[in-house]
Amino acid sequence: MKTVEIKDTAELGKFATKYAASLKGGEVIGLVGDLGAGKTTFVQLLAGSLGVKAAVKSPTFILMQVLETAKHTGAHRLCHVDAYRLKDWDELAAIGFEDYAGEPNTVTIVEWADRVPEIHRFPAYKELTFSFGPGESRKLSF
Amino acid sequence: MRILAIESSCDESAAAFLEVKSGRISRFETLVATQAIHAKYGGVVPEVAAREHSATLPLILEQLAERVTGSSDGRKLGKTVDVVAATRGPGLVTSLKVGYDTAKALSLAWGKKLVGVNHIEGHICSVWLPGAPLEPALRDAKGVFPALVLVVSGGHTELLLMKGYGKYRLLGATRDDAAGEAFDKAAKLMGLGYPGGPAISRLAAEGSPAAYAFPRPLMQDPEHEFSFSGFKTAVRYFLQKEKARLSDPVFVRDVAASVEQAIVDVLVSKTVRAAAATKVRTVIVAGGVAANAKLRSTLASSIAVKLPSVRFVEPPVKYCTDNAAMIAMAAYFRAAGRKFDMPAKSDVDPGWELGR
User: Fold this and answer.
1) Where are the alpha helices (H) located in B190-248, listed in sequence order?
2) Using the beta-carbon criterion (under 8 Å), do A95 and B51 form an inter-chain contact?
3) Between the CA of residue B52 and those of A69, B10, B70, B328, what are the distances in Å?
4) Mutation site for B-interface testing, chosen from A12, A52, A58 by largest number of B Cβ within 10 Å
5) Is 90 exceeded by the pLDDT of residue B200?
């Protein structure tokens, strides 16, 4: 596992740009980290790099939103999920998660992925863990 | 005009019947899943009900038919209504589909007009429901418009300029977390349950709102956007330092009151500034967080002092949370403007933004 130190939002933006460039579609990305650790901010920056034009907001309440990415990237859709309010995998499946997750034209990103451990069974699953460092900094492990 | 409306955009499934005669509501029935399920099974509705819509909706419709026509035979209800309406967006795609597809099917089967409603427009239209201050008159609406609307809930925080029924311009929205989410997540950090908004308000009533100075993000910004993500992080850092004091009830009440004051300050000052800039006649507040007593009273007093010629309008508290009555009301205005949808061509729009 690799760990990087992120000083501020600008550095997180650079990381998100590089991360976005590595995505081809079909990936299922789990984000793990406490309230305020930067999960939604990371998704906003990643979406920007993928050319998403719509406003990316926290989907805690709405649970899942599907966003169109720019045509020049491999994936056509970014599926943004928040498992914060979900009790278990069944609830995630019930909202139609498997219609999007793992689809070759879709990058799926799930906040609070540790609430749904069954997500590890996706072959293209990757995880990013956010933790608090000194001051305003964050540590990112992947 | 008689309308059957269905709401299923997120957690709540609901249905309502509304009859409007010459600008007055003459008949009105509304049911949410919680009531329907409780009446039938005495059961508890799960926190995340998105998966439950297809199970609960037939139950709700059956009970509504009984209330409206005295018979659970849906054909009688079908003969009674002129318009079938349902929320078409924004919301969770799977939840929206259950309600909207049901409405499409009923519209086709009964040969009645279909209206797809924007969920946010529904919240706004709750100020025309029975018990609310406005009447749904189509002609003499000039005294109301233009109106500035603050829609504030768990999933939305938006300022809209409303120039007439169905005429909206989005002035600004949250860039990240909604105000209702800021309440919920602050509550979570304080160790209170979900949903946290009502829990914070209860504690705040006995606390000191000036005890702790939490940030007021974008409050002085002349644009009309909001941001509550940094606010959540600030509460987190503060509580990390003061962790030991969370067992002191006075401290918890003071933090709750200070959190509520910070969120309310941002909402109120941005709303008042936008109302002054757009020279509106009316300010409307709507959405789940519009049930918050502190937000209501602060908006009322602030508008009375700073914009004395502007009328402040708030919906009855019972119609602030998601319901189908508000969808029926919004559908009435759309249908009155002949804005119908074609069942075979129309589909849900989970990202539907009002006024953009």
Assistant:
1) 196-204, 229-241
2) yes
3) 31, 10, 26, 22
4) A58
5) yes
**Closest CB from B92, B178, B180 relative to A64:** B92
d(C-alpha B256, C-alpha B88), whole Å? 36
Q: How many CB atoms lie within 10 A of CB B260?
A: 26
Instruction: Answer whether B20's CB lies under 8 Å from B1's CB.
Output: yes
Minimal Cβ distance to A35: which of B154, B176, B236: B236
Contact B115, B84 (CB under 8 A): yes
Q: What is the pTM of this model?
A: 0.92
Segment B169-176 shows an average pLDDT of 96
Task: ipTM value, please give it.
Answer: 0.86
| CA-based nearest residue in chain B for residue A40 | B176
Residues of B in contact with A58 (CB under 8 A): 176-178, 181, 229
What average pLDDT does this structure show over B190-203? Answer: 88
The pLDDT tens digits of the residues spanning B327-347 come to 999 999 999 999 999 999 999
Q: Stretch B162-173: mean pLDDT, rounded?
A: 96
Helix (H) or strand (E) holding B103: helix B93-110
Average pLDDT, chain B: 93
Cβ density class A99-113: b for 16+ within 10 Å, e for less: ebbbbeebbbbbbbb
Residue B270 to residue B262: CA distance in whole angstroms: 12
How many Cβ atoms are within 10 Å of B80's Cβ, its own excluded?
17
The mean of the pLDDT values for chain A is 93
Chain A positions touching chain B (beta carbons under 8 Å): 34-36, 40-41, 44, 54-55, 57-58, 60-67, 85-87, 90-91, 94-96
**Residue A54: CA atoms inside 13 Å, Cβ hemisphere, count?**
17
pLDDT band of B120, cuts 50, 70, 90 = very high
* Model confidence band, residue A87 (pLDDT cutoffs 50, 70, 90): confident
Distance in angstroms between the alpha carbons of the first and the last residue of chain A: 6
Q: List the single residue in A41, A58, A67 with the smallest CB-CB distance to B181.
A: A58
Three-state secondary-structure class, residue B259: helix
Q: Beta A77-82 vs B311-313: how paired, if at all?
A: unpaired
